Automatic annotation (TrEMBL):
Keyword terms, alphabetized: DNA-binding, Nucleus, Transcription, Transcription regulation
Keyword flag Ribonucleoprotein: no
Entries under SMART domains matching the protein: B3
Annotated Gene Ontology cellular component terms: nucleus
UniProt name for this protein: TF-B3 domain-containing protein
Taxonomy of the source species: Eukaryota, Viridiplantae, Streptophyta, Embryophyta, Tracheophyta
Subcellular localization, as worded in the UniProt entry: Nucleus
Domain TF-B3: 17-111, 181-257
PROSITE patterns: B3
CDD domains, A to Z: B3_DNA
Length: 260
């Protein structure tokens, strides 16, 4: 499947890797098997987890990816995605691959109409991760939808984790030398005096980045340029920063990169 885009010069066809699944009441709720022919689109970016974003309500779920033989499966976290979106009545799901193991999903009811709301998601929430004391990375989580704007006009969406200890925030990259942490997020989740960060990419590689505080804003600066360069981050990319752990000396975050 491909997406057709109209522009001033006519019509271009952008090859956007896409697949669909029909979710029936008899479907196995423990996992979703990714079509074998789709495997070629993600092999070079394969990681242990994938981010599923529901386009109609701008919510995200992180699920664990399992590879068994020639097949790939979405497993831990998939059941929560089904439950949170009340799926199982022959809905037609379209998965569009955005790169870096991130998928955008549209849900069509069996009537053929596209779903514009998800009945299982309470208003004022972004997405879900279930709470688990020994949480494997990539379980679903719940975020708030409050938007913040930094003083330079850059907008960000702080994802407030309402059930677990693993909150996250999302930033569109407008500067390559630094990133501002949303004020609401830093107030609620970061130590008041320590600004040393360990940033981990989805391959498990880590970088040390230092932060500075100006008024109520923490800025990731020293070390960020190296992290951005090593991970190919460019202007316009979106980074999802997921808090893994914190202490009085260091803050550990996993960074998901959604390419522009």
């Amino acid at each position: 499947m491909a997406r057709v885009v109209f522009n001033n010069g006519g019509m271009d066809e952008q090859k956007v890797p896409t697949f669909f699944k029909i979710i029936k009441s008899s479907s196995n709720t423990d996992y979703l098997r990714i079509p074998p022919e789709f495997r070629k689109h993600i092999l070079n970016e394969l990681s242990m987890r994938a981010v599923l974003t529901l386009t109609s309500v701008d919510c995200s779920w992180t699920v664990r990816v399992r590879e068994i033989g020639r097949y790939m499966y979405l497993k831990e976290g998939w059941q929560e995605f089904l439950r949170d979106n009340s799926l199982g009545d022959s809905e037609f799901l379209v998965f569009r691959y955005d790169g870096n193991m991130c998928f955008s999903i549209d849900i069509f009811e069996k009537s053929g109409c596209k779903r514009t709301e998800s009945p299982g998601i309470r208003r004022h929430q972004r997405s879900t991760f279930s709470n688990n004391t020994k949480r494997p990375r990539g379980r679903p989580r719940k975020y708030s939808n409050a938007a913040e704007h930094t003083p330079n006009g850059e907008s960000s969406i702080p994802f407030e984790h309402t059930e677990s200890k693993f909150p996250a925030f999302k930033k569109t990259i407008t500067l390559l030398y630094a990133v501002d942490v949303p004020t609401l997020f830093s107030r609620r989740h970061l130590p008041p005096d320590n600004y040393k960060f360990i940033l981990e990419n989805t391959d498990g590689e880590t970088w040390q980045v230092n932060g500075t505080r100006s008024n109520d804003t923490i800025k990731l600066c020293s070390g960020w340029v190296t992290f951005a360069r090593c991970n190919g981050i460019e202007l316009g990319d979106v980074c999802l920063f997921e808090l893994q752990s914190k202490s009085n000396t260091v803050v550990h975050m996993v960074v998901h990169i959604i390419r522009n």
